[in-house]
Amino acid sequence: MSSPIKNVILIGAGGNLGPSILAVFDADPHFTVSILTRHSSKSIFPSHLKVHRIADDYPEAELLQAFKGQDAVVSTIATANAVQQQAIIDTAIKADVKRFVPSEFGSDTLNDEALAILPQYFKGKKETVDYLKKKEKEGLTWTAFVTGPFFELAMKSGFMGFNIKEHKASIISHGNDTWSTTKQATIGLAVKNALLIPDKTANMYLYIDTFTVSQNQVLASLEKATGAKWEVTQVDAEEMKKTGLEKMSKGDFSGAMSLIRYINCVHGHGGNYIEYQHSANELLSLPKQTLDEAVAEVVKG
pTM for the complete prediction? Predict the structure, then answer.
């Protein structure tokens, strides 16, 4: 049995997901959590937490100092910078860190169809885990989380095609293909609980969700929560994919959002991973919630 994990340092605590992970660790007296951030970051963190501010290029000497005495590193570094994690992993090994959680959160990057559509986003994540696998023999364990879209963010931002303010929905094709999604607080809880049982979560992908639903089910739930009939626009999936790929080929990365939505909402690309992978929800003691309950919370703000 490995020794327990107590000291955890979080990279990317000011991003979309970082605050949710930070809050869960901070609330559990079993853990002592600290933050690693770049000097250029404008994020503000709770005053009672230790913050290690280092140069933007993550110099090894400064990383070593921050990682000293840490049992685990949790990374929510931006997807575009995923490859930077390899140097961070090397330093974690030198600092005798026990567990590394890479910034894998999101789509199932093991799905070849998804990887082929959007290698710019998924390749760096997959290569990070492949690198971690090679480093197992040096004593560093890892845990990667597949979560699907962050539910609240996907709803509020309109990323998945739902405009709550204007009661408008953009539905891809028939809208019946299912996709897995996880609430942000639940992702934080999953990471924390995985580190409470390190022997059972070492060197593996953990697939979690709050629910797996279709676009039409989300639409029905939104209409129920808002008490209004929504205006619906049908979007051809293959045309959306084509447009997204054309944008990406011209260096217009706004096309990535359409492609990620396609990957999530069209079966065969891993969006419904919880229907073919083993769910870690029970292992990690994750709470259950209905779609209607979660949607109502989002609508109420």
Answer: 0.96
